[in-house]
Amino acid sequence: MKTLLSGGTVLSMDPAVGDLARGDVLIENGRIVDVAAHLHAPDDAERIDATDRIVMPGFVDNHRHTWQTAFRGVGADWTFDQWAQAMHRTVKPHYTPEDVHAATLLGRLEALHSGITTLLDWYHVAQGPDHEDAAVDALHEAPARSVFCLGAGWATPASVTSGIRRVRSRLDDSGLVTMAWGLRGADDTGLDTLADELRTADELGLRTSLHTGGDQRPVDTLRRHGLLRDTTTFVHGNGIGDDELRMLADAGSSLSVSPDVELKMGFGAPLTGRALAAGLRPTLSIDVVPSVGGDMFSTMRTAFSAQRGLDGGLRARDLLHFATIDAARSCGLQARTGSITPGKDADLILLRTDDLTVFPVTDPAGTVVSAGHPGLVDTVLAAGRIVKRDGALVGVDVEPLKRRLLASRDRIAAAAGVPLDGTWRP
């Protein structure tokens, strides 16, 4: 139960620990117990040679809809309205629990493979308890930390509290799979319902996540009605005012930016720079893989380039914080993950520095943000367990899962009457 990562370049994301050009990380019973330039390896420890590797916290994606994994890439050219028509109104009605399970499991494994050790799965297939249970079961099968964020679908008017309570009875806060509530928002349900749901979330000890944006001053409306929480993450937010960003900062709320989707689908410029100016630490998320790539490297790079193009702001180190400790905080998991800190769970990734696409690595943080890619992810640990080694997932037979996902995609597409030859335009 002891592991020593030896001789790596350590990017800790913890100011008290700092960075180490050459460092060791000792793990015992799934937790980090020490970080130093040189550590003695206990006799019973497994030693992992981290030479030519960057050792850093695993990435945290705090907003992704994994149920759409089977339709990867089909929406590369879609607007937001086309995506909503395709995914929510065309294919979603044909999803069975088995389809949800296959997409969720493969989506979570894909994220893990690319170094995302914590994922908030924003579920809004919303077809009943069997579908919800299938998603939860899939997240349990993936050997990683996940937050099942149970949403209510697309403008579903009915009460969802009983479903939230049912799933909450399955998931406590001690395991690798925990729970959050994906709120529908006042536009869909009215302020009274939103207030009731926030009270229930407080009662159940659940953090909440809410898609928002536009020019109707949604944050100010929530503030005036006492509905801003330090336990809520606002997703996207494009179009809200600078003063509303300050309201979120004052309330202790979080902001999740999905830069690739926001730019591609016409939401507007990502809010990374404006959020920082307002005193709000932004975080990063992937959102939907029918339209964008599923790895955090490309997400960081898009956010970085977009903001630098606007005002020359941000530094590479900022992006690493957004994608690790800041995002962990948004999930209420900052005491467990997000940095290489003694006492925290060992959710860590080892990135190759001898790969020709990044060699020679002179500035580790700058290299990860400007040139990193999933092919560099050599080793992944989740709560101290090695779940990827030498570039391959451990203990996962991927091929049968891939066949399941293909069969699921083909069945749904046939039932929905949509082509899979690149010509689908909702």
Blueprint of the fold:
Layout: E1 2-11, E2 19-28, E3 31-36, E4 46-49, E5 53-57, E6 59-64, H1 80-91, H2 97-113, E7 116-123, H3 129-141, E8 145-151, H4 161-168, E9 177-183, H5 186-189, H6 191-204, E10 207-212, H7 218-224, E11 232-236, H8 242-251, E12 254-257, H9 259-264, H10 272-277, E13 282-284, H11 296-311, H12 316-330, E14 348-352, H13 364-371, E15 377-382, E16 385-389, E17 392-393, H14 398-416
Parallel strand pairs: 1-4, 1-5, 6-7, 7-8, 8-9, 9-10, 10-11, 11-12, 12-13
Antiparallel strand pairs: 1-2, 2-3, 5-14, 14-15, 15-16, 16-17
Helix pairs in contact: 2-3, 2-14, 7-8, 11-12, 11-13, 12-13
Q: Can you summarize this structure?
A:
This protein has 426 residues and is α/β, with parallel strands linked by helices. The chain has helices at 80-91, 97-113, 129-141, 161-168, 186-189, 191-204, 218-224, 242-251, 259-264, 272-277, 296-311, 316-330, 364-371, 398-416, and strands spanning 2-11, 19-28, 31-36, 46-49, 53-57, 59-64, 116-123, 145-151, 177-183, 207-212, 232-236, 254-257, 282-284, 348-352, 377-382, 385-389, 392-393. It has 2 domains: 2-57 and 347-391, Urease, subunit C, domain 1; 59-330, Metal-dependent hydrolases (TIM Barrel), CATH 3.20.20.
Defining key terms:
36% helix, single chain, alpha/beta, 2 domains, Urease, subunit C, domain 1, nine-stranded mixed beta sheet, TIM Barrel, 17 strands, 426 residues, 23% strand, eight-stranded parallel beta sheet
